[in-house]
Amino acid sequence: MFTRCFGYPKASVDRANNQNNRGSNMDVSTELLDIENMRAYTYKDLRVATEDFRPENKIGQGGFGSVYKGTLQDGLLVAIKVLSADSSQGLREFLTEITVISDIQHENLVKLHGYCVEGNHRILVYGYLKNGSLDHTLLGSGHCSINFTWEIRRKICIGVAKGLAYLHEEVHPHVIHRDIKASNILLDEDFTPKISDFGLAKLFPSHLTHISTRIAGTQGYLAPEYAMRGQLTRKADIYSFGVLVLEIVAGRPNQNRLLPVDEQYLLERVWQEYREGGLERMVDNSMIEDVDMYEACRYLKIGLLCSQSLPKSRPSMSDVMKMLNDEIDLNEKDLSDPGLLSELAKYKTVKNNTLGTTFSGSGMHENSSSYGNTETSYANMNFTTVTGR
Ligand SMILES: Nc1ncnc2c1ncn2[C@@H]1O[C@H](COP(=O)(O)OP(=O)(O)OP(=O)(O)O)[C@@H](O)[C@H]1O
Ligand SMILES: [Mg+2]
């Protein structure tokens, strides 16, 4: 049983890190028996909350299922994520998510209220975040009523950094999220950002230098050393965070295949502009009136610092927070080449891959994946894409 607030007993570390070895027929209910702080909802509770999963209440669709807005009997507004029944990949993530965040709470992490396991149903119940996810609002192509001022963007960057610093440095064992990206940053009504989706997270005991693991994450946010060698450290999250900061300041996604080839990759563009002394050109011009241009450029440099190709050159999340708050200087002499996706891309042969795909698969030293979905070869690794992600 869990007795501590911010620590995991060894059994739960093993459980969270071993989900990949389990099959789809595992007894999920047994797995969840010893998890405290989590409410088990009945399927009927959630049917009532969503008016029988009415299509009008659907607010999102991810690779593992649909998300509905609902109101529980006690009036609590929730987001209800229904996993596709036939996804064994989703089942592993389902258990990891519950195991990892059942015991931690922070203002910059989404709140998981509970779950439902009944028959084939696997459902997660989160606090509802009124202002949705960054990919739909700030980076979406459709209309968005939110005016993302510089003040709001600064608040989002700092909040995400806080949440990540907490996972990396305050929780024991440390948690590596592995899927930091715009669609996993949700905003509440006063634009406090909340990191969501802990399905790929790994608990990282502090005596280890890295974990060798299956590669999982989202194209465009993956640190090169992790993508190439499957060696996972907290620095992989910091790389993804760096890419996210660039997206927030530039107001565009990290890849945009509609642009001319040499402008498609944001990280590459920002680095090029930095070297040519034109960083202001990368600041989203929709906030031209209120932006603190000096600070916005400083944030772009912090994004570059986090996305450098050598993991040891990337700062820790607590240092990133201090830099964002202007409490410590950013030493520009430390700034070196970013780990560029396009360099990896030169070697890749992609079959059936989609932009923004979350995937998991095996690194080149491991046996190939057993997930059985579309095989995608990327450099000299085998990835297995998760359909639709
Ligand atoms: N707690 C929440 N409050 C409000 N909206 C949410 C919440 N959780 C998810 N959503 C909405 O549902 C969408 C789908 O979320 P989901 O995590 O299933 O997939 P995703 O992050 O978009 O993609 P992926 O499958 O690659 O993780 C989000 O983009 C967001 O708009
Ligand atoms: Mg998500």
UniProtKB/TrEMBL annotation:
SUPFAM superfamilies xrefs: Protein kinase-like (PK-like)
Q: Which Gene3D superfamilies match?
A: Phosphorylase Kinase, domain 1, Transferase(Phosphotransferase) domain 1
Gene Ontology molecular functions: ATP binding; protein serine/threonine kinase activity
What's the main place this protein lives?
membrane
Superkingdom, according to UniProt?
Eukaryota
* Residues binding ATP, per UniProt: K81
GO CC list: membrane
InterPro entries attached to this UniProt entry:
CR_Ser/Thr_kinase (IPR052059), Kinase-like_dom_sf (IPR011009), Prot_kinase_dom (IPR000719), Protein_kinase_ATP_BS (IPR017441), Ser/Thr_kinase_AS (IPR008271)
Q: Name one Pfam family in it.
A: Pkinase
Compartments where found: Membrane
The leader peptide range reads none
Stated membrane topology is: Single-pass membrane protein
Q: Where is the Protein kinase domain?
A: 53-328
Swiss-Prot/TrEMBL keywords: ATP-binding, Glycoprotein, Kinase, Membrane, Nucleotide-binding, Phosphoprotein, Receptor, Repeat, Serine/threonine-protein kinase, Signal, Transferase, Transmembrane, Transmembrane helix
**UniProt similarity note:** Belongs to the protein kinase superfamily.
What is the name of the protein in this document?
Protein kinase domain-containing protein
